[in-house]
Structures are given as C-alpha cells and as structure tokens.
Design brief:
Rossmann fold, two-stranded parallel sheet
Length: 127
C-alpha cells in the first residue's frame, strides 16, 4: 500500500524514486486518495494536477475501508497515546488500513510510521 508521499513521488517521477514492483500491483487507501484530492484542490494548477491524479489513480488499486480498519485504528491510537507518541490522525488511519489488509506501507515518512506496532514499512526513495 502506497502512502501519500510515495504517490506524489510516483506522479512527479521524482529523482531517487525507485519502485520495487509495478504500480499496477500496488494500491492506495481511500484516505490517501483524500489527501491527494486535497493537494489538487489547494494547488495553483488544478486542471493539470487533476489530470495527473486521474492518470495515477488508473494505475493503482483503490482500497476501501472495512470495519476491521476501525478496530486497528482504535488500538493504534490508544497505544500511541499511552506512549505519548501520537502521529497524524490521517497517518493513523492509513497505518490501520495497511494492517487491516496485511499490507506493507510504502512511505518515505518512516520515522513517524515506525511508531506503529506491527506495521511493515519500506521506502522506495533513495536518500
């Protein structure tokens, strides 16, 4: 499952972005889609960015939320709150979604997501 920043790197063809599998074999959470839609809505090149987003969305799977995701979210949030290590709310939902479908999360935000217990993470960006 691709995180928002990985999707942006893929859409821009960012230097250092090195996918390990074809995008067609990857998916994104509906939460990530919402973050990408927000970026388009706030951009100064809405039409150009909308076209890029549509092309990208046609190249990946879209995962919808299931009740199990909410269960994982509640557990993640409670555990991180107990540890005083909360991460962004959308990031907790994205992590919960990856856990609920037993997927690795591909993100360049490894410092934040590494706080989530049992979440498999990887980065496709060379530093």
């Amino acid at each position: 499952m691709l995180d928002t920043n990985t999707c942006i790197y893929a859409m821009k063809g960012s230097a250092g972005f090195t996918p390990r599998v074809a995008l067609i074999d990857c998916g994104i959470s509906i939460i990530v889609m919402g973050e990408l839609e927000y970026g388009v809505a706030r951009s100064v090149r809405v039409e150009q960015n909308r076209a890029a987003l549509i092309a990208f969305l046609n190249s990946v799977r879209l995962y919808s939320l299931e009740p199990e995701t909410a269960m994982h979210y509640g557990r993640i949030r409670a555990r991180l709150a107990e540890q005083g290590q909360l991460i962004g709310n959308n990031d907790m939902w994205i992590a919960a979604h990856a856990l609920s479908i037993d997927a690795s999360l591909i993100t360049h935000n490894t410092a934040e997501f590494s706080r989530v217990p049992n979440l498999s993470i990887d980065s496709w960006m060379k530093d």
